[in-house]
Amino acid sequence: MNDVISGSVGQVRPQTFQCSEPLPLKSGAVLPGFSLVYETYGKLNADASNAVLVCHALSGNHHVAGYYDAANREETTGWWDNLVGPGKPLDTNKFFVVGVNNLGGCYGSSGPNTVNPKTSRLYGADFPVVTVEDWVDAQALLANHLGVQCWAAVLGGSLGGMQATQWTLSFPERLRHAIVIASAPKLTAQNIAFNEVARQAILTDPDFHGGHYYEQGVVPARGLKLARMLGHITYLSDDQMAEKFGRSLKDGALKYSYDTDFQIESYLRYQGEKFSGYFDANTYLLTTKALDYFDPAAQAGGSLDAALAQAKADFLVVAFTTDWRFSPERSREIMTALVHNGRRVSYAEIDSVHGHDSFLLDDAQYHAVLRTYFDEVVL
Amino acid sequence: MNDVISGSVGQVRPQTFQCSEPLPLKSGAVLPGFSLVYETYGKLNADASNAVLVCHALSGNHHVAGYYDAANREETTGWWDNLVGPGKPLDTNKFFVVGVNNLGGCYGSSGPNTVNPKTSRLYGADFPVVTVEDWVDAQALLANHLGVQCWAAVLGGSLGGMQATQWTLSFPERLRHAIVIASAPKLTAQNIAFNEVARQAILTDPDFHGGHYYEQGVVPARGLKLARMLGHITYLSDDQMAEKFGRSLKDGALKYSYDTDFQIESYLRYQGEKFSGYFDANTYLLTTKALDYFDPAAQAGGSLDAALAQAKADFLVVAFTTDWRFSPERSREIMTALVHNGRRVSYAEIDSVHGHDSFLLDDAQYHAVLRTYFDEVVL
Lengths: 379, 379
What we know:
Two copies of one chain form a homodimer. With 379 residues, chain A is α/β, with parallel strands linked by helices. Chain A is built from eleven helices and 14 strands. Chain A has an eight-stranded mixed β-sheet with strand order 1-4-8-5-11-12-13-14, with helices on both faces. A two-stranded antiparallel ribbon of chain A has the order 2-3. In chain A, helix 4 (189-203) runs antiparallel to helix 8 (281-293). The first copy, chain A, is globular. At the A-B interface, helix 4, helix 5, helix 6, helix 7 and helix 8 of A face helix 4, helix 5, helix 6, helix 7 and helix 8 of B.
């Protein structure tokens, strides 16, 4: 009862899709077979017209909504639970919602920390570099498995939005709506530069052992911590950092040492420490490469207009004013190319102080836009 | 002859100022004595009214102009040689120009890589954390040594500009002009955050050994490389990176590995590698702390207006449109506080694509502003 009132999908359990077919990857490598861990919320309707795929970003996973443990609910709640549930903007009374952990992930899907069937050892650095296109190919096989021929919608924020975009290019007939939030048609040199510093932090950590650290009983926690600290700077807006932390001191006075002087240092160290305790460094590396490589225009002579000519879905593109990782300008590039192609596209630029992270938060205006859009999706 | 034509001050040699007086530091620590390495260009006039002090930024030093080795001129030229020399904007035919390596530096002035007289071993991590105020105090003792009671001007870019500002507060009667370029009245939370990631990269490098790495025969090169790579991202503008590197590939095709795919990666790795080969990690740490701590308003109840009320110098404040490390907005804060105090202040906002690094380059408009300003300094 509480769950209904609070709009939670309630207690959930992940499932596993085992695919024994070989999956050819964009790199030329072939995965001999793979597993995808996923969750579903709501019920697939009779003609399978109400399925919505949620794609995750850099550090996300398949656990989108609900919780695993009622006794430990807050800690085990899905990362987009504010959006997905009965009566929520993506309403599970209407839609059958699917969350999936991508290939190369570290939450149970085939990835560096799973067993390589060829060697019976953990893949580690031998797990191939995967791309957004590869992820979408694998997600399409999951869709087959679930009996979903055509998604009502595919959505995601940031890197998740890139997957939604890629769906419209790889399988134009297999989705009716693409919802692309806080995303970009490709990374800039500055975006790649930040990713490269994060990668070098991991790759040069002596505990990385060429990506085969599992066997050494260590993890490159120092490198992963640095990567996450750096990431956090790009997720928050300058203004929000100024407002939330400013130059506030942690302990009231400067210490004249390398101990923590400012609150912002304490916050970043804490975030980095926490992340390096649960996330996998090889997955972090793979995922930043998928980000760097995504560039649909490159395969269409450099023209985003030409690349998106294949798309058949309707689009909702959402950007946030203070997002400097993927600024509204980047979303407008996507919107403009869609307009040039005569596609139906809605564009919302949300006034938010929370920078790139806004896509995860339950800003009223933002959620109202999504609610309205989903309400109008005809099944 | 060639030197006169090219406007070079010619071959130069650093000198050393030994001060045996104890120097009390802002932290409460006391340096029992210290050395400052410096260079001078041009001639001090009879009434010592033509002296100009150039303050360096994070990775700079005393070698501002001229060269050390005629046979190896390009590699041994000073970092602001485009600005300082006979006939150049800061004209050594008119001015006696002084460059100094700050306390805590790694170019010969007392710092972590010099001998601690108390222990007869290298200071390493025992060198005290020094501040902009401490630097200015030490520079004032150098001024005494040189017979300079009042500088015609003190100038610097970035952290150098903070020293110029601090001169007007610590010794308001001892300079007539302060030239504050690409600077800020204090760091924001985001600025501090970037510094903190850089510091953590160094502090967590296993070769750091608590700052006593010299004795171990190693240097924390991995950490210092990461710090410099990250720094470089903030020195360049997003637009300039896009223009210079964009998504250009280093070897024509994606590699599907963690080898270098993009030119920007190659550039950053090269810059990081080079820097970690000559700069000292302890000095990097100290200098980022000096940046973080600089906040004259904090000692005046949080009011920059109140802090700058002590200043008596005339000011030139210069900002660059694409500088996102210290944006023009930050320079305008300084300018506005000076105006509120009725000070004479000129403000120039230079249209440049080169971001924070612009202050080091010889942009025509920028140099014209400096030339005009220095031409009008009455001796």
